[in-house]
Each structure stands twice: as C-alpha cells, then as structure tokens.
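Dear colleague,

Thank you for sharing your sequence with our group. We've completed the structure prediction you requested, and as agreed, I am returning the results in plain text so they can be pasted directly into your records. Please verify that the sequence below matches your submission; if there's any discrepancy, let me know and we will rerun it promptly.
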Amino acid sequence: MTRFDDIEPGRPLWLVTLADLCLLLVGFFVFVQATQLDKQQLAAAIRKGFDAPLPEAEPITLERAAVRGFAVADAGLPPIGHLIDWAREAAADPRTTITVTGSTEGSEADRDPLTLSAPILAADRARAVAAALVRAGAVSRDRIAISTDAGANGRHVLLSVGFAGGRQAIAARQLPVAALPGVAR
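Please find the predicted structure tokens below.
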C-alpha cells in the first residue's frame, strides 16, 4: 500500500489534461496574433488602454550654432548678423524646427538681476535670440522652440536645427517617368 491510495481524485484525469491542452492552445494563438501585429501599433494600443498619452518624438538634430558674448547677468544681444543668415538657410526646409537653448555660467554673479535666478536669465537670453530671428524674418515663430539648460555651460545660447517633419511625398522622391509614345500630356 502506498500513501496515495486513499486519495480519490475530484475530476477525471483526462479532463484535467484536456483543460491544460486548451489553455496551451489559447496561449499559442495569442503569441501568433502578437507576432503578427506591428510593434508600434501594439504599444499604442496598450498606452491607449491605460490612458497614457503618446510620446512626442524629439526632432533629430541636424546642425548647431552658438551665440556667444553675453555679458554677466545680462540678456542683451551681442552681434548676431551671421546667425540670421544661418537660421534662414537652416529653416528653408519646412519640416525643420529651431530649438533655442539659453544657458548661464553657473556663478553667483551670472543671475537675473531682479529675481536672482539663473534659469530666468537663461530663458531671457534664449528669448532675445528667438525674437531677433523672428524680427529679421529668418524663421517663423511657430517653428521655434525655446528651452533652458540647467547646467553651468557658459554665457551663450545654442541653436539646433531639428528635423521634425514627416516623410516627403512619394511622387516628389521618384524620378520623372518618360512619356509614353502617343500619349499627350
């Protein structure tokens, strides 16, 4: 006599194995369905299910320029004539944006005189450069983003051109097709 002889099963053994087989089959079909979906669509559907907002893609930085020569604790513009031409050329593609990032050197002296805040001075420097670019007609105001750099990186403003647009139209990227004989255009 073994120690399991006195225990009677509640369900037939074949029924338990059938239920296991059904669960394995359902799991297999879930994996098959999941591998056929686009991963971005799957992630978007999961985010939507949890009411999470879709992340906005950061523009891909293509080119940078800098405005140096700011006085300590001052947001007055140094000469930026060369920068206006650079921004006009960089903004020729309508799919690009220009991010203007102001920064301070991090010292006690390089702060906004009224609020004694370095981030406010950095924002004022970036805003002054952005306003000069818009006034000169180099960039439209809806294609400029202003930000500040919290680190102590110097008294300057960095400008970065980022690609934020979609793809070009397929017809614009294809070579022109030669006209067929007998077909008038």
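Summary note from our side: Residues 84 and 136 are 7 Å apart (CA to CA).

Kind regards,
the structure core
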